[in-house]
């Protein structure tokens, strides 16, 4: 039987809020539900526990799940800047859009954003041996996507009626990892040092399980996505 703890975050500063989250995990909670979240920063920072799910109703502030290792965080709404910052493991699922620097320096786990993200998504993502972070954006990304990327996998699907990437600096300074964009990227929007090629059938097969997982999370038909053409940066 799952142990569930509910916390009302209305008017609560992020420090006592995080103290309550940590106390609940230490007491054995497997599901923690936060209601009335409105801009509190650092929610879930550094928490651990593979079987723990943190469900957020509202809009969390910046650096959601920073340094997190293991739990799942589900946001039923939008999120502010840098969710998944330097995250080590686990999943962050955002049923809306997110701000700038999503997955900043992320080093493991997955971040799924159903809609759009802001500037510098995936900046300085990194990987070590078999620890490979993944960021999937269902909608569109703003400028400097994957800037200074040093590892990991970044996928942009363009499902919100906006071209997935139509601003400059894609992969600027990239020196590791891969960016897959559904469709084509205007060469003028590529950053310094970035190169694009059509994704091969083998590469499409490689990313298909990730796309299928993303689609399952958000109730989307995966077939059209896996059958689409992708550009690899």
Notable traits:
single chain, 233 residues, alpha/beta, 3 helices
* Strand segment tally: 11
Ends apart, CA distance between termini:
45 Å
Average predicted local confidence, pLDDT: 96
Shape: elongated
Largest sheet: 11 strands, mixed
Structural class, by secondary structure, is alpha/beta
- The unreliable regions are none
- In spatial order, strands of the major sheet run 1-2-3-4-5-6-7-8-9-11-10
The proportion of residues forming helix, as a percent range, comes to 10-25%
What string, H for helix and E for strand, traces the elements in order? EHEEEEEEEEEHHE
Summarize the model shown.
The protein is an alpha/beta fold and 233 residues long. The chain is built from 3 helices and 11 strands; from the N terminus they run E-H-E-E-E-E-E-E-E-E-E-H-H-E.
What would you note in describing this structure?
The structure is a single chain. By secondary structure, this protein is α/β, with parallel strands linked by helices. Helices cover 16% and strands 26% of the residues. The chain contains three helices and eleven strands; from the N terminus they run E-H-E-E-E-E-E-E-E-E-E-H-H-E. An eleven-stranded mixed sheet has the order 1-2-3-4-5-6-7-8-9-11-10, with helices on both faces. Helix 1 links the parallel strand 1 and strand 2. 46% of the residues are buried. The model has no long low-confidence stretch (mean pLDDT 96).
List the helices and strands and how they pair.
Blueprint (H helix, E strand, L loop, with lengths): L3 E5 L5 H13 L4 E8 L14 E7 L9 E8 L12 E6 L15 E4 L20 E4 L12 E7 L19 E7 L14 E2 L2 H18 L3 H6 L2 E3 L1
Parallel strand pairs: 1-2, 2-3, 3-4, 4-5, 5-6, 6-7, 7-8, 8-9
Antiparallel strand pairs: 9-11, 10-11
């Amino acid at each position: 039987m799952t142990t569930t703890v509910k916390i009302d975050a209305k008017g609560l500063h992020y420090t006592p809020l995080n103290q309550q989250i940590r106390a609940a995990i230490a007491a054995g909670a497997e599901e923690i539900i936060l209601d009335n979240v409105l801009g509190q920063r650092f929610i879930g920072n550094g928490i651990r526990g593979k079987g723990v799910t943190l469900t957020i109703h509202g809009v969390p502030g910046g650096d959601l799940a920073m340094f997190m290792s293991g739990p799942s965080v589900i946001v039923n709404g939008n999120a502010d800047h840098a969710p998944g910052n330097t995250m080590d493991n686990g999943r962050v699922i955002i049923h809306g859009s997110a701000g700038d620097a999503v997955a900043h320096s992320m080093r493991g786990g997955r971040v799924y954003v159903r809609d759009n993200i802001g500037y510098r998504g995936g900046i300085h993502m990194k990987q070590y041996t078999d620890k490979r972070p993944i960021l999937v954006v269902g909608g569109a990304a703003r400028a400097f996507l994957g800037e200074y990327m040093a590892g990991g996998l970044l996928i942009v699907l363009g499902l919100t009626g906006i071209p997935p990437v139509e601003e400059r600096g894609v992969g600027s300074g990239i020196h590791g990892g891969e960016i897959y964009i559904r469709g084509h990227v205007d060469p003028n929007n590529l950053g310094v040092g970035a190169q694009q090629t059509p994704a091969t059938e083998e590469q499409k097969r490689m990313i298909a399980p990730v796309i299928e997982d993303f689609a399952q999370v958000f109730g989307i038909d995966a077939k059209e996505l896996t059958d689409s053409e992708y550009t690899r940066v």
